[in-house]
Amino acid sequence: MGGIILDIDKADLSLRRQLVRYGPMQGFWGVKLGDEIIDCGLTTATSPFVNRHHVFVDLKHYDVRDRLARIVRKYARGAEYAPKFLTISGARPVEAIAAAVAERGPIDIIVTGPLSDDHLADEEDVAETLDKVYESGAQGITCPAWLLPESPLKTYDGHVVTTGVVSKGVARRHHFNPRPLEFALDYGATHVVVGTEVTESDDPFKTLLGLVARWHKHNLTPAH
């Protein structure tokens, strides 16, 4: 089951406590961690959340070819602290991704597109990444919301983790060509990552609940 994923790298302590205290919410999938894994380790970073929500760990800092499988194996053996999703860069050779997938245990491997500061992804990049998902046996793919209409992902039956989603009227300085939540859902997103729209708002938890409510409303509309 999909839902909203909150990137909490920049979340303050108050929001983190509310997430833990409130517990599971239908439509809220869980939290995404990246920088914090580097700072304090997997168990310390995930332990406040794993009994309440799913955890998505971004391996961007660890994504080195000869260490991928070893790192995934280590995370998979994290027992009750293991994340639900781990990302691996689609820029890696398919053999390296497949070796990591073989070590995944209960973790779903999500392959990211080849985005960088000097390269703007297009639909061909998404198709190439999707080929690697199929060949490696990975469980999902990430894709910016604005690329979804032109991509082959509408008929893909794995996880489609969508980024670049920002509500209308919200400052969009952190995103290129952002799209609203409903756009992403219309074009096949199963999970939607949100971050600064929530963490930089005046009332982060209220903003998050508003996004979850919109997720529900959209999915309950007969046309969807």
Task: Describe the model.
- The protein is an alpha/beta fold and 224 residues long.
- The protein has one domain (3-216): Aldolase class I (TIM Barrel), CATH 3.20.20.70.
- It has nine helices and eight strands.
- It has helices at residues 13-22, 35-40, 42-46, 68-76, 94-101, 123-136, 181-186, 196-199, 204-220, and strands spanning 3-7, 28-33, 54-57, 85-89, 108-112, 140-144, 159-163, 191-194.
- It has an eight-stranded parallel β-barrel with strand order 1-2-3-4-5-6-7-8.
- Helix 5 (94-101) links the parallel strand 4 (85-89) and strand 5.
- Helix 4 (68-76) packs parallel to helix 5 (94-101).
- The chain is globular and about 45 Å long.
Question: Features of this protein?
Answer:
single chain; 224 residues; TIM Barrel; 35% helix
Secondary structure elements and pairings:
Layout: E1 3-7, H1 13-22, E2 28-33, H2 35-40, H3 42-46, E3 54-57, H4 68-76, E4 85-89, H5 94-101, E5 108-112, H6 123-136, E6 140-144, E7 159-163, H7 181-186, E8 191-194, H8 196-199, H9 204-220
Parallel strand pairs: 1-2, 1-8, 2-3, 3-4, 4-5, 5-6, 6-7, 7-8
Helix pairs in contact: 4-5, 5-6
Major sheet: order of its strands? Answer: 1-2-3-4-5-6-7-8
The CATH homologous superfamily: Aldolase class I
Sheet-strand content, in percent, reads 15-25%
Average pLDDT reading: 84
Which oligomerization state do the chains in this entry correspond to? single chain
Distance between the termini: 16 Å
Q: Can you tell me the CATH class? A: Alpha Beta
How many beta-strand elements? 8
**Fraction of residues in helices?**
25-40%
- Main sheet? 8 strands, parallel, barrel
Structural class: alpha/beta
Radius of gyration, in angstroms, nearest whole number = 17 Å
Q: Total domains, how many?
A: 1
Low-confidence parts:
none
The best one-word shape is: globular
Q: Give the count of helical stretches.
A: 9
- Strand/helix succession: EHEHHEHEHEHEEHEHH
CATH topology: TIM Barrel
The appropriate CATH architecture is: Alpha-Beta Barrel
